[in-house]
Amino acid sequence: MIQSVVFDVGETLLDDTREYAAWADWIGVPRHTFSAVLGAVTASGRNNAETFQYFRPGFDLERERQLREAAGRGEDIEDGDLYPDVRSALSALQKRGIWVGIAGNQTARAAQLLRSLNLPCDEIATSGEWGVAKPDLRFFDRVAEFAPGRREEILYVGDHRDNDLIPARRAGMRCALIRRGPWGYLWADDVIAAGEADWVVGSLTELVDVIS
Questions:
Q1: Is the bond leading into 135 cis (omega within 30 degrees of zero)?
Q2: Kind and range of the H or E element at 145?
Q3: What pLDDT, in 10s, does the model give residues 95-116?
Q4: Which helix (H) or strand (E) holds 102?
Q5: Cα(109)–Cα(208) distance, rounded to whole angstroms?
Q6: Burial class (CB in 10 A: 0-12, 13-18, 19+), 97
Q7: Which residue segments constitute the domains of the chain, with CATH numbers given?
Q8: What is the pTM of this model?
């Protein structure tokens, strides 16, 4: 039985289109060019942060985040960035008595921005706050401390095979892949063939139905 559901953020709850566009504008490359290189990095199974190295070798992501903030062009999350099914699905889970958490590879500022949206969830945390990021198993140890229930009663939901599903399963949790965003579409069939997920769903509404 599932007692807790913990959600990844980017391309699980949030459509990252605006943020990727902001990065393309910041480094001065066409948005479609940035997206194409990001896609190539994704398809090769590498960390998407490596995308920047093609445009600026030695790119320091943390420093550039600080520079964006100082320039008034920092990270921003608005209600319109949420996928349309997010509020209704999280609320439906809570109504069924399931504890709902959000924990992903985001900055501490992103955690503050997410909390300001007043989402129907019980807790929010990010790798920036925890000091450890996926796919490190210590991240999922923190998830296990964060969410109620035994590990086998915690479901982690994400769009990324290597950052979300495989480490969550290794940490003893159940896992679900959502087929959206570049990673979700790219790896969904591989995940199904390899049996790496308890569920593969096309929306969070579908997720509520299958686990309920």
A1: yes
A2: helix 137-146
A3: 999 999 999 999 999 999 999 9
A4: strand 99-104
A5: 29
A6: exposed
A7: 4-15+81-211 (3.40.50.1000), 16-71 (no CATH)
A8: 0.94
